[in-house]
Amino acid sequence: MDFFNSSDYRPFLLTGFPGLEASHPVISILFCALYLIALVGNSVILVVIQVEQSLHTPMYLLLSMLAGSDLGLCAATLPTLLQLFWFSVNEINFDVRLIQMFFIHVFSLMESGILLTMAFDCYVAISNPLRYTTILTNATVPKIGMGIFLRTVVVIFPISFLIKRLKFCKANVLSQSYCLHPDIIKLLCSDHHINSIYGLIIILITFGMDSVFILLSYLKILITVLHIASWEEQFKALKTCVSHICAVLLVYVPMLGVSSIHRFGKRIPPVVHVIMGYVYLLVPPVLNPVVYCIKT
C-alpha cells in the first residue's frame, strides 16, 4: 500500500454533503445564518457583561468565558467551511489541518471545564450561600479560567507530534469540512494504537472527569434542595440551575453522539456522520446565548 510521511504528503480534501455538492451554495445560507447567530449572540453576551457593572460577578464572568470559548470554536471552523461551501475549494494542507484540529479540540475541552466550574458555582450558591462571596470571588474566576486553559493545552499539545511521526495512506479525504482527531486517525497506515489510547485518555481526564464532578455537584444540590421546607424556595433554588443544565446537555449530548458514531457507526450513511459533526460544533455556540439570554 502506498503511504506518505507528513512532510511530503499532498493536501487533504475536505468533504461537505456527499451527493449534494451542487447544493452547497444553498446549504451555506443555513450555515451562515447559524454562524451569524452564534457570533452575534456570544459577542452581545461579552459586551453586556463588560459594560454592565452589576454583572461583574463570578456567575457572569464564567458565562463570559463560555461565550469566549464558543466564539473561538466558531472562528476555528468557519474559514474552511466557507472555503468549501462558497468557493468549492476543498484542499487543506497538513500543517493547517493540525492547527485547526488543535484549536477545535482546545475550545471544546475548555467548554467542558467551564461548565464544571459553573456547576461548582451553582453548588456553592445553593448549599453555602453565606460563604459564596468568600469562596468564589471575582479575582478567583480568572485564575480558574487560566487553569482550565492550561489543562486543555497541555493534554492536546502532544497530539500534533504523535501524528507527525506516523505515515499516511494514499487516501486523503476527510469526512468533514474541518479536521478532527478521529478523522485523521482513519487516514493513518502505520500503527496508531498510541494515538488512539492517548485520545481515549484525553476524553477520560477531561470530558469524563468533568461529567462525573458535574453529576456529583447536582447530586449535592438536589440533596440540599430536598432539605428546604418550602416548595417555593425549592423551586426558586432549582430554577437558578436550569440554564446551566441546558448548557451541559447542549455540549455533552452532541459530543456523545459524535463519539458513538465515530466508533460504532461504520454502517451509518456518510451524511449522518457529517450532520452529527456539524451538530457537535454548532449547537452549543448557537443555542447557549439563546438559553442564557432568555434566562437572564
Quick overview of this protein structure:
With about 300 residues, the chain is mostly helical.
Protein traits:
296 residues, two-stranded antiparallel ribbon, 10 helices
Structure description:
- With 296 residues, the chain is mainly alpha-helical.
- The protein is 73% helix and 3% strand.
- The protein has ten helices and four strands; from the N terminus they run ββααβαααβααααα.
- The protein has helices at residues 24-51, 58-85, 94-127, 132-135, 140-164, 181-186, 193-226, 231-239, 242-264, 270-295; strands at residues 3-5, 12-13, 91-92, 167-169.
- The strands form two sheets. The protein has a two-stranded antiparallel sheet with strand order 1-4.
- The radius of gyration is 21 Å and the shape is globular.
- The protein starts with a strand and ends with a helix.
User: Structural class, judged by helices and strands?
Assistant: mainly alpha
Shape: globular
**Strand and helix order:** EEHHEHHHEHHHHH
Q: Number of helix segments? A: 10
* Mean pLDDT figure: 84
Count the E strands. Answer: 4
Query: Low-confidence stretches at least 5 residues in length (pLDDT < 50)?
Result: none
